[in-house]
Design brief:
Layout lengths: L3 E3 L7 H4 L7 E5 L5 H19 L5 H4 L2 H10 L1 E7 L2 E11 L2 E9 L8 H11 L7 E7 L3 H9 L3 E2 L8 E7 L6
Parallel strand pairs: 1-2, 5-6
Antiparallel strand pairs: 2-3, 3-4, 4-5, 6-8, 7-8
Length: 177
C-alpha cells in the first residue's frame, strides 16, 4: 500500500491527498525555501522539453532564482518530496475567469509513474468554484504531455500561445465538476 504524508501547512483535504502514486511521498505548499530546488527541477524538466521541441526558447529555461522566488509569491505552488528530495511540483493561479496551471514537473527518473497526472488533478481540484475554465501550455511537439492533458479532458485552443507552444483548455461544468 502506498503511503502519503501531507505536511500540516499544505492546505490539502484528505480526499485531495489520496492516491499519490509515489511511495513515501510528502505533499506540501511551496515556500521561499523551496525556490532553489524548484529551479533545479524546472531546468531538468525543461531540458527534455527543449530537446522534444528543438528549441531553447523556453521561458522556464531562462528563469533565474529571483524569478522563481517572485512567482512563488504570485502562484499557489505544491511540491512532492520523497525522503526529502523534491520530485514533483505544480503551480496554479486565477486569471480572470480562468484557472491557469503551470510548471507541472516531475523528476525525469520518475516520469511515467503517474505523478504528473496526479499533480494535474491536484491543481485542478484547487480551482475556485467560480472559474469557467482551466488553461495550460506545453510544447507544440511535446506529444507525451499533450496526450496526458487530452486524456484529462483538455482540448487544444485556438487562443494565442507562446512560440512553439500549444494552449490547452478545459471548460468546467459548474454543476458536476
Amino acid at each position: 500500500m502506498l503511503r502519503l504524508r501531507v505536511s500540516d501547512d499544505s492546505g490539502m483535504s484528505s480526499s485531495e491527498s489520496e492516491g499519490l502514486p509515489i511511495d513515501g511521498g510528502v505533499l506540501s505548499r511551496a515556500s521561499p525555501d523551496d525556490a532553489a530546488e524548484l529551479l533545479v527541477l524546472q531546468r531538468c524538466c525543461w531540458v527534455e522539453e527543449a530537446l522534444a521541441n528543438d528549441t531553447l526558447d523556453i521561458a522556464a529555461l531562462h528563469e533565474s532564482l529571483d524569478d522563481v522566488r517572485a512567482w512563488l509569491d504570485e502562484w499557489a505552488t505544491w511540491c512532492v518530496r520523497v525522503a526529502g528530495r523534491l520530485v514533483g511540483a505544480v503551480r496554479a493561479r486565477r486569471e480572470g475567469s480562468t484557472w491557469d496551471i503551470g510548471r507541472l514537473m516531475v523528476a525525469p527518473d520518475l516520469a511515467g509513474q503517474g505523478l504528473g497526472g496526479w499533480l494535474l488533478r491536484l491543481a485542478e481540484a484547487r480551482a475556485p468554484e467560480d472559474v469557467e475554465s482551466i488553461t495550460l501550455f506545453t510544447g507544440a511537439r511535446s506529444t507525451r504531455n499533450i496526450a496526458m492533458y487530452e486524456r484529462a479532458g483538455f482540448r487544444r485552443s485556438l487562443a494565442p500561445a507562446p512560440p512553439d507552444a500549444v494552449r490547452l483548455e478545459k471548460r468546467l461544468d459548474r454543476h458536476g465538476r
